[in-house]
Amino acid sequence: MSKVIISTTMGDITVQLDTEKAPIGAENFIHYVMEGFYNGTLFHRIIPNFMVQGGGMLPGMDEKESGESIENEADNGLKNVRGSLAYARTMDPHSATTQFFINLKDNSFLDHSGKNAQGWGYAVFGQVIEGMDVVDAMAGVATTSRRGHQDVPVDDILITKTTLIED
Fold it and tell me: Into how many domains does the chain fold?
């Protein structure tokens, strides 16, 4: 299993990637970590008592160009529990690219429940193992609407660096 340290302007978050149950999602995340994609991106959407989302927007709310979308593997048995890392996506279940979110509480309604558009769920591929206090602190910041996006932190929360740690 691989670990990634997500260094932010609010502190470090260490996540354990589940390369066994979520090989597509974990490898996709590792690819973007290794190429430095996340460096300088924002945690751009924060909804208290739900989740914090990042990995695709630059300061000013400009979307960073990403690669191809990946197959949704939300049927892997991993659940959207507190501290889990999952891919954000559009209504298309197979549209995830770089954006991810960290669940602030158990969000079972996001879990896979069937292979129809509503039931596909959001694919979990990792778990916070250190730094959940940083994630909880993010949940407490003031948010606003900016450039058509809601729940945007008033003050930017940047991912300054991501570091892969192989076990």
Answer: 1
